[in-house]
């Protein structure tokens, strides 16, 4: 089956809260690589994605913190995808 690379996930889960648009974009890029393992990825990541929009002030508020933590949590508990028999 296809599974999440535990060494890469370990690095992602230790990341502190992003402090810039660049860090949010980088985080979403890395986590997005595993989006097929994370149910409701788009819905969960929405507060973070909104920070990437043009002319939006960077405010890493409570919804962003919650989304950031939830994505990291779901990534560590991601299932292994297996091809159907």
What letter string, H or E per element, gives the SSE order? HHHH
Radius of gyration: 13 Å
Mean pLDDT across all amino acids:
88
- Figure out the total of helices: 4
The end-to-end span amounts to 11 Å
Uncertain residue segments? none
Structural commentary:
This protein has 4 helices and no strands. Helix 1 packs antiparallel against helix 4. The longest helix has 15 residues, at 62-76. By secondary structure, the protein is an all-alpha fold. The chain has one domain: Alpha-Beta Plaits. It has helices spanning 6-13, 21-32, 41-50, 62-76. This is Mitochondrial protein.
Q: Which structural traits does this protein have?
A:
Alpha-Beta Plaits, 4 helices, Rev_trsase/Diguanyl_cyclase, DNA/RNA_pol_sf, Retrovirus_Pol_polyprotein, Mitochondrial protein
SSE diagram, text form:
Elements: H1 6-13, H2 21-32, H3 41-50, H4 62-76
Helix pairs in contact: 1-4, 2-3, 3-4
Summary of the model, kept short:
The chain is an all-alpha fold. The protein has helices at 6-13, 21-32, 41-50, 62-76. The N and C termini lie close together (11 Å).
């Amino acid at each position: 089956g296809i599974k999440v690379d535990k060494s890469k996930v370990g690095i992602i889960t230790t990341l502190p809260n992003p402090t810039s648009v660049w860090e949010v974009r980088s985080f979403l890029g890395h986590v997005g690589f595993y989006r097929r393992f994370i149910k409701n990825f788009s819905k969960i990541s929405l507060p973070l994605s909104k920070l990437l929009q043009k002319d939006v002030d960077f405010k890493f508020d409570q919804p962003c913190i919650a989304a950031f933590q939830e994505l990291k949590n779901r990534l560590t508990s991601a299932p292994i995808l297996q091809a159907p028999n």
